[in-house]
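Q: I'm teaching a short session on how sequence maps to structure, and I want students to see two examples side by side rather than one. Could you give me a first protein with its sequence written out and its structure tokens following it? Keep the formatting plain so it prints cleanly on a handout.
A: Of course. Example one:
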Amino acid sequence: MAKKNVVKTIADASSCAAKLAEGKACTMAEMKATIRILNSALKTARSTAKAAKREARTATENFRGLLSRVGL
């Protein structure tokens, strides 16, 4: 019987995705867990990027406000 792989981290999910890209077999449970983990990681990355953009915009606005007070 084959060794049962439990996908719990993004690294595990990436290795399963690499196996699939090479045409090797993964169990249905591994594929489902991989999709779930990578989908969650994508959502987190998108929300983090939005937050970083928002913070950068606020910092830029604050900097411009300070420059206008100084008279530049």
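Q: Perfect. Now a second example for contrast.
A: Example two:
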Amino acid sequence: MSNLERITNRLEPLSAQLKKEGKDANQRVVMAVEDCLLTTIDDKLRASLYAACRTTATLHGYADYLPKSGQRDANNALSPAFTAIKDSITSFVVAGLTHNPDALVYLFRKKNKENIIYYTEETLVDFLYNSTTRRLEDDFKNKVWDGQLESLTTNYESHINESNETAQEDN
């Protein structure tokens, strides 16, 4: 895999977010990403531009769309799906808590180093997202899932239809 391919994979979630934002995206970040992906530059310059791009993206609030230090590249194939999943889970939690803010009172976490036992909106989103992505990464590695959201939707609909048919047969 070439340096260009590696950096393209690393910037995929950020690029997807910038495309999603369209004209509202920060233009400095857009230009930094474009500079990293130029085909006419050498690897040394590309590495420098990538470091500058990470700094620019972080300064302008896009750190969540950059790979963490030591993150494996295998996840980058799943980044578009994971970005959509994160947005969906966040919307789900926010809508649920807007409708019933007391729900956090009844949900308990395991005690942790800080002795925090209650969820916040953010920690609940993180928990749901992390557990979902762990399972999906395993499914992807084991070739149970192809990395596409459409297949998750199809599998879910099939499961619901089978459950409804079983319930009707039992009645």
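Q: What should students look for in example two?
A: Point them to this: The chain has a mean pLDDT of 86. Also worth mentioning: Helices lie at 3-21, 27-36, 43-59, 79-99, 103-106, 121-141, 149-170.
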